[in-house]
Amino acid sequence: MKKKEDPHKINQHIRAPMVRVVGQDVEQAIYPIRDALQMAEAQGLDLVEISPTANPPVCKIMDYRKFLYELKKKQKEIKAKSARVVVKEIRLGPNTDDHDFNFKLKHAMKFLEEGAKVKVDVFFKGRSIIYKEQGEIILLKFASELEEYAKVEQLPRLEGKRMIMILAPKK
Question: Is 120 exposed, middle or buried (0-12, 13-18, 19+ CB in 10 A)?
Fold first, then answer.
């Protein structure tokens, strides 16, 4: 199995004859590659090429494994902070009775409190499409019942045999 290539050149993999060396406890200057490698080895660290396009290339003396660990840790932290938007779907009919309506309403409240968006749709079967005003009334009633938990992100609109409305949680 082939190992994934490192994004940086380290130690003996650096091909430039002269390099600018930076790092802690190091006098910043241009050294031959052999001297730079000896300096890194004397400190028990790695010589890492951080700017290969510079003339001469810039190399830093550091613990490469620790550097990669910190990099991975930062990326993981960023990923954890980015919130994923979850959309929960609730389906109603044009003639949904009060008990079912309230039952679905409680589910929507729970979803909104968890921070998810709620997509409410009224599905028209067969000829029930003639009751599209009734579907819109149900959706608007649903939105007004959830007024303190959510704001309407998308007003009811008809898409084929469905009337869809999207609610987003209030912060």
Answer: buried
